[in-house]
Amino acid sequence: MTSTARRPSRVAKLPPRERVLDAAEQLFQSEGIRRVSVQAIAERAETTKMAIYRHFETKDALVAEWLRIVAADYQAAFDRVETEHPDRPREQIMGLARFIAEGLPAISHRGCPFINSLAELPDRSHPARQVIEKHKAHQTRRLVGMCTDAGLPDPEQAAAEITFVLEGAQVSTHNGSIDQTGDRLMRIVDGILNRPHSPLDTPRTTAT
Amino acid sequence: MTSTARRPSRVAKLPPRERVLDAAEQLFQSEGIRRVSVQAIAERAETTKMAIYRHFETKDALVAEWLRIVAADYQAAFDRVETEHPDRPREQIMGLARFIAEGLPAISHRGCPFINSLAELPDRSHPARQVIEKHKAHQTRRLVGMCTDAGLPDPEQAAAEITFVLEGAQVSTHNGSIDQTGDRLMRIVDGILNRPHSPLDTPRTTAT
DNA sequence: TCCGCTCGATACCGATGGGTATCGTTTGGG
DNA sequence: CCCAAACGATACCCATCGGTATCGAGCGGA
Q1: Which residues carry the record's DNA-binding region feature (chains A, B) (predicted)?
Q2: Distance between CA A104 and CA A65 in Å, rounded?
Q3: Contacts of A166 in chain B (CB under 8 A)
Q4: What would the pLDDT profile of A53-87 be if each residue is shown by its tens digit?
Q5: What is the pLDDT of residues A145-193, one digit of tens each?
Q6: Which domain holds residue B91?
Q7: Which of A37, A193, B27, B33 is 20 to 30 A away from residue B148, measured at CA?
Q8: Could you tell me the CATH number of the domain that includes residue A135?
Q9: Cα dihedral: B119, A31, B137, A190 (round 10)
């Protein structure tokens, strides 16, 4: 999840812009956006506020850039499961579920960055919001594609169900209302993929 | 969801404390907690900041009180479906799902108050956090009870799945990544309840 | 060598916001 | 009728925070 492997994450002699993004990543994730001041980011990045404003127009721009990076991490996860399980859409989806499930412990204190940012940025005009919406739309499209490839009946509905479950698992992990969310999540997704789709049964509710 | 039926919601000649709670409810829901100043609440309630601080120790206490009210609304929804469908746990659960599904359009701009508050209040020690956790735990307990009564194999797992789906539907509605979330949600919950439980699969607690 | 860019440091500005003090006015119960 | 409590209004204090201005030190390239 928080992609601690992307960059050394050890603030060292990286160029300041990278150090700032590293620091922002850590602080935004653990403390939230609005609770973290630019000053705090500067200190954590071992630089100054001025240096930050040389690289980013405003704090909002920095937030948007951070979310772009997080989105790229998720995209990378999609890419990885696709290359690891070529032409095996079911295993690709299970790989995605595992990616989320394994990230759950890391977000148990603090939630999913997208969900949190959505709550912290009510303005739809905020640049970060557009990053999120674009990312989510792209992710949904890709998941629907996998469900289609997996031969699931009504792939859009299946993608919706998987999305709901993935998001919900993160929320429930965050508020601690349910235990063993990782295991439960894997079992649920497995159940969705291996559901016996009785051909007589399907024309029940107003399916598309 | 936002329970516009609970109180007149029309700021009139209610006692100031009620007017403050009304105003806080509307503003916190639509704008978020941290973006709403006490001053703004006072203006909306047609009173002053001082009057607010006569009834609430701090802003945090007001936030907690607001969430207590929201939680009570949800509890009322539980009570309602139980009395409307006595001894029919499946219909009770469907009623809950419908309660959430019908609330989705109202939260399409802004998300579920609990999820949002969780994101806005990272401190586990915040009084509002304890309200949320207590409420979520209670809700989970009740849902597990319904699943048990419904004779579902592994009721805890079923309750987890339903919870995930309900939370996820709210998140996905908020970020707009999926369309027709209400219909999809109802179909999913229906599928969970009417799933053919293969008798070999789960020799678990065959609770009544 | 010298020019220009980036970097670091500090001080500052203006706005916002939580919370308090004060004072005059309303209001309802004994 | 009278008093005390609650109310409304205003002004204020102080901390935080986004963003800016300035100045001097390093540093790479021509």
Answers
A1: 37-56
A2: 23
A3: 168
A4: 999 999 999 999 999 999 999 999 999 999 999 99
A5: 999 999 999 999 999 999 999 999 999 999 999 999 999 999 999 999 9
A6: 59-193
A7: A193
A8: 1.10.357.10
A9: 80
